[in-house]
Amino acid sequence: MEQIEVFKALSNEARLQILEWLKNPAVYFSPQEGIDLEEIGVCVSHITEKLGMNQSTASQYLAILQRAGLITATRIGKWTYYRRNEDAINQVGLFLKKELKKD
Question: Which domains are delineated in the chain?
Fold first, then answer.
């Protein structure tokens, strides 16, 4: 995980909102038939709808979060599902904690 990519990804309010929603997907998204929101993730179409943006912009935001390693994607049929990468997010927290202690 490259820190600069992570912080670029976190510099946008909508991308931060996506991460918040994916932290507890059952709270923010309706159940999806046959899909475990915690294990598989949330369908891109549901994220797009919740954002209130066009699919192109939402997909671009998700791609930035994925390149930064903050979310993972699972493809099932023609749909892509996203969930948080908790290990990577924890690493960001540890990095910040370490950097803040330097001062």
Answer: 3-102 (1.10.10.10)
